[in-house]
């Protein structure tokens, strides 16, 4: 009986090792793989576009207060486009002063309202 069990175990090990193996070669899919199957490598690049919001507007004096996420502030003199619901509605030029994550900008073109999105395209 032991003899039969030993041959059964050896037979299962040989059968498991005799399965199909992935091809090794120079095809494009294999060369772009990450070593775990034929999945291509994924490269993630963070977006570096400057994005902010309009928080205050003085239409008579033609200036707006802009708010940006911490660590991403436009430089003085930088031109930004103003978008509302995905459509460009104006342009502003950063003039300063800056306080915390807010900065003042002159309205150079178009119409600006509270809640509009700013982008440096």
Brief write-up:
By secondary structure, the protein is of the alpha+beta class. It is 17% helix and 36% strand.
Explain how this protein is built.
With 121 residues, this protein is of the alpha+beta class. It has a domain at 51-119: Thrombin, subunit H (Beta Barrel), CATH 2.40.10. 17% of the residues lie in helices and 36% in strands. It has two helices and six strands. It has helices spanning 2-17, 28-31, and strands at 51-58, 63-67, 79-84, 87-99, 102-110, 117-119. Strands 1-2-5-4-3-6 form a six-stranded antiparallel barrel. The longest helix has 16 residues, at 2-17. It is rod-shaped, with a radius of gyration of 31 Å.
Could you give the topology of this structure?
Elements: H1 2-17, H2 28-31, E1 51-58, E2 63-67, E3 79-84, E4 87-99, E5 102-110, E6 117-119
Antiparallel strand pairs: 1-2, 1-6, 2-5, 3-4, 3-6, 4-5
């Amino acid at each position: 009986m032991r003899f039969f069990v030993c041959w059964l175990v050896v037979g299962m090990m040989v059968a498991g090792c005799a399965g199909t193996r992935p091809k090794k070669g120079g095809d494009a899919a294999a060369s772009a793989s990450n070593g775990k199957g034929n999945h291509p490598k994924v490269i993630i690049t963070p977006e570096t576009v400057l994005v902010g919001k309009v928080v205050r507007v003085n239409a008579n004096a033609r200036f707006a207060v802009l708010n940006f996420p911490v660590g991403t502030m436009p430089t003085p003199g930088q031109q930004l486009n103003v978008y509302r619901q995905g459509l460009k509605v104006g342009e502003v030029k950063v003039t300063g002063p800056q306080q915390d994550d807010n900065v003042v900008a002159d309205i150079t073109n178009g119409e600006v309202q509270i809640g509009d999105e700013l982008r440096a395209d």
